[in-house]
Design a protein that fits this description.
- There is one protein chain.
- The protein is mostly helical and 93 residues long.
- It has 2 domains: 10-39; 40-92.
- Helix content is 58%, strand content 12%.
- The chain contains 5 helices and 3 strands; from the N terminus they run ααβααββα.
- It has helices at residues 10-30, 32-35, 45-52, 56-64, 81-92, and strands at residues 42-44, 71-73, 76-80.
- A 3-stranded antiparallel β-sheet has the order 1-3-2.
- It starts with 9 loop residues before the first helix and ends with a helix.
- The model has no long low-confidence stretch (mean pLDDT 86).
Length: 93
């Protein structure tokens, strides 16, 4: 079976990519479940550690072990409030 080959100019390729991105972003922004996550409160490592009553080093260890969900951006850790509360609920179980 032959593989179809499409030849596009760089300008046409850019237009196709822009169209696809606009469509996808539009779908994401119209999804009520997804758009709520943009308003999610994000905490710093120090705020999260203080809330949980532990050291920042312990919190980093938990995040590296995937025991609590955190996002590392460069040297900075960020924790979504919902993930911190989920971690606390799992401790009780």
């Amino acid at each position: 079976m032959a593989t179809p080959v499409f030849i596009l100019t760089p300008e046409d390729l850019e237009a196709v990519i822009a169209k696809v991105i606009r469509k996808e972003v539009g779908q994401i922004l119209n999804d009520p479940n997804f758009s709520d996550s943009f308003s999610e409160e994000n905490w710093t490592k120090s705020k999260t550690a203080a809330f949980l009553g532990m050291s920042e080093q312990k919190l980093t260890t938990l995040a590296l072990r995937d025991e609590i969900v955190g996002i590392k951006s460069g040297r900075t850790w960020h924790f979504a409030k919902s993930n911190v509360l989920k971690y606390l609920r799992n401790l009780k179980n």
